[in-house]
What does this fold into?
Amino acid sequence: MALRRDPDKSALTAFADELRAYRALAGLSRDELAEKLAYSPSLVAMIETARRTPSRDFAGRCDQALGTPGTFARLEERLRSVPFPVSFRPFAAHEAVAVSLRSFEHSLVPGLLQTPEYARAVLGTRPNTSQDEIEDLVAARLARQDVLAREDPPLLWVLIDEGVLYREVGPVEVMYGQLLHLAEMSRRPNITIQVVPYSAGAHSGLLGAFVIAEVDDTPPIAYLDTAAEGETIEEPSVVAQVLLTFDSLRSEALPHGASRDMIMRVAEERWR
It folds into this structure.
C-alpha cells in the first residue's frame, strides 16, 4: 500500500511521518518495531519525531521489517541528496529541530544569519561549481534559516571574531546590508550575538569555526568547519571540549549591547 506523500515536507520530516504511518499500518508499537529492527526504542522514537537522522542500515531494516521494499531506502537517499556537503547533512537534520544552537565564526558571518547576497558571494567562490549549482547551494543555505522562523525557534547564541565585520565579502553594499541584518537579528529575544574583539588576542577560536546543536532528550552534537568539508561530531568527550571552547570565547566577548553597537559602527564607518 502506497501512503500519500507531501512533496513540500523536508526529507527528515517525510521519513519520520512515513515511519509512524507504516508502523501503525503494521499494528506495531514502537517497542515492537525496535525489537524487529534490533535498534533501541529510544532511537526509533527520536527518528519518528524527526530528532535524529536515520542511517542507511536503519532504513534498510525498516523496509525489511515493514514489508516496504525500497521505500525507506529511497527516503534515506533523499536525505543524503540535499545540496549540503555529505559531512554536514547529519548536522543539518539536528539543526532544523534544535532547541538551542551555539556558534562561533572567525572569518565569515554564520550561515543562519547570512543575507542572500552575502551567501551568494561566499558560495560563489567554490571551485568547479556552475552558476546553477551555486544557486542551489544558496537556496539550501537560506532554507536552513527557516529554523529561526519556527513557532518555537531555538535559542541562538553566536560569537563572531571582530575580523568578520571587516572581511570584504562581495561589494560594499553587500557588507553594509549584512551588518545591518546582523544588528537587527540581534534584537530578537531568542538571538544573542557577541563580538570577540581584536583585543582578545590569539584566542582558541582562531583554530576553527564550529556550531553546537542541542535537541530535547539527546546529547548535543557539534559541527566543526575544516579545510575540507567539515566534520559532524557526536562523541561526548569531543563535544564537551567544543562546549568548553565556546564558554572560553564567550568570556572574551563584548556584551550583547556593546557588540551590536560595534556592528553598527563598523557598518557606518567602514561599509557606508
